[in-house]
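Blackboard transcription, Thursday session:
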Amino acid sequence: MHRMLERQLIRARADSPDGAVDLETLLDLVDAAYIEFDRQRRVLAHTHEIMRDEYLRINAGLSRLRDAITQMGAGFAIWDSNDQLVLCNGILREILPETGDLLRPGATFADCIAHMAPHIDSGGPARSSRDWLDDRLRRHRNPADPFEITVAGGRYIRIWEAKTSEGGIVGVYVDVTESKRAEGELRHAKETAESANRSKSLFLANMSHELRTPLNAIIGFSEIIQGEMMGPIGDHRYLDYSRDIHNAGKHLLEIINDILDMSKIESGKFKLDAEWTNLGELVDGVLQMVRARAREAGLTLHAVAAGLPSVFCERRVLRQILLNLIGNAIKFTPSGGRIDINGKMTAEGGIMLSVIDTGIGMAPQDIPLALTPFGQVELTLSRAHGGVGLGLPLSQRLAELHGGRLHIESAAGTGTTVSITLPPERVAQSALRSA
Amino acid sequence: MRIEQRVWRANTGWRVAASDGALTPALVLFFAAPGTLDDGKRFADLRTIYPGAAILGCTTGGEIADVDVLDDTIVATAIEFAHTRLAFAEATVDGDGGSEAAGRQLAASLPRAGLRGVFVLSDGTHVNGTDLVAGIQKVLGPDIAITGGLAGDGARFVSTRVGLNANPVPGRLAAAGFYGNEICLGFGSFGGWDTVGPERVITRARGTVLYELDDQPALALYRNYLGPEADNLPASALLCPLRIHPPGKPEAALVRTVIGIDDAEGAMMYAGSVPEGYVAQLMLGHFENLIAGAGRAAARAAIPDARLAILVSCIGRKLLLGQQIADEVEAVRGVLGEACRLTGFYSYGEIAPLENSPFCDLHNQTMTITTIAEA
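(Written on the board underneath:)
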């Protein structure tokens, strides 16, 4: 008799008041057992399906992982808790050909690196291959930051290792020889550039002295000749020539000063010496300096200087900016034209000074070029109007040194507006401060 | 040490199933099918039959007497000790939050001198079994072995009862402490379930409530695993226990069993804690492995001259093995021998020392055996 049926008989007997087996009771028990078996069969069938689904799921995940490891573009290896290779990808074998065909599942890490040791640049003549092996094993067992090893022939392998939860090690190995070389070249290029820049600065400092010394003689002596300080000059043409010499010398000095300022700004050596300055007085002073030139050029010059606030700036620099801008306006505005100088507060509380001319203007696409050092819009212009194209870029950099901006609006044939804006913190907001 | 075992059935009333002769028991352990205690008469019967004994018992998901697993019965085992002294304690537990405090209170009521072991019965639906055991152990220390289980309510998971010298009621814990040099206690606990499918991480959980595995609702995963049995949730979730372990520490794995579901939240509720960040894997049962597992538990619990074995087995095993559940009790008998009488019940959680550790914990889905002998 099957043990289950035997149990049913015992149960039927135990449940009976007189100890006799009642057929109805037994049938009920057996029927319940059959119903139970059907249920168990359904459970088992579903279990089978679940196992199959989970198997497919796990297998799909495994395939994805294997694919990722194969395609990952770096060497990859997993070592188990006994330090034996579980798996690695083909790239690892490619970047470490020194391991021969050792990199197979089951290989120990110690064997693999022992095989590599003779091919390793152990980091100096004092370090033996034994030292390298010990060091490498220590790093492998207590992985921390990534590090590099150098394989004979000048190849660099970057190694990143970490512990796995089962107590093994996972490693990523990247051949960085190429980026090392590029890094070296970059470093070399940078050093060369820095050295060139140092030479340039030295050259400019020297030139400043070497150029200004003879210029001072030229400007000074031509002034003396012009003033006939040592007695009258016979022929008036000598006077005209000496004036030309004097003007040409001063122009040359301005250009040299601009170039020096530009190079100082570019090398970060330009230090502002700012103070509270009455902007109205400063604009008036500039107007006096340029009025004669404007008149000679047949231009009318209008300025509203009254009511301008005090600004915190280097006076010489701001004067230079205005002189540059007005000088340009005079230079590029044909006779009969007009130049306006306006000042107004910005919405943020800064100040904007604009120089507006009715000159030849330029196309909007030429504005960036005009702001590039030595980028005077057309060579023909430079020939016709003189100058080396430093005025605008220099003014822009000087405005920026004050935390401000320089902005150009222009259209060819209708004129140009150049504005400089100083930020609110440089503008006196109260009568007390502007006093 | 002498034993008498009685079984009550609706059709037959109380019957003596086995007896070592007239005895004066110090302890009567009884395990009762839900519903059989409602009118209080069966407890009154026991009080009358064994007037001087402490009477400790609970409701079950099935009763074990000798080699059979019974339903709708009460199995009472009266034990007379030759030398061993006993002390008893009880406490009330009111929800998960108070489980550890209740455990501490229970343990504090037991005199410490000469204490050798504690057998605990607890409410099975309103308790965090993990916290309860931790509370008891905090007071008693790691030297005292704690065994026992959480009461059952068939496969309904609604209301469970525990009682000491009174008709059992919900929300109660009770314990017997064994004292003296003559008492010998053995323990063994084993599951025999097989993990299937991928490991998943517990990404959202609080206390004993599991919301998400791998960012997916836990309930949806169970429904998929259970297939046609999903309609019988939460009971059918016992067919798929959950094995959990701290990340990177598979050796510290525990098995958790479901005691309820929250359809609105898509959450599962367990008899013990399911900490966030732990690795979880679902399990399925293979009949032969579960039956062999019961045998392994018995082998671990085996002590010389054991006279009584208290089997606390998981309701989930009974749910899966169905008509063949008695096979696991027979496997235990096969290991412990004819001289060792068997009693016990199908529970909502088993309590036993952890393997290779002095600490006790709540187990789920296991056969957990306490063997008793007197020198």
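Lecturer's comment: The first helix of chain A runs from residue 3 to 14.
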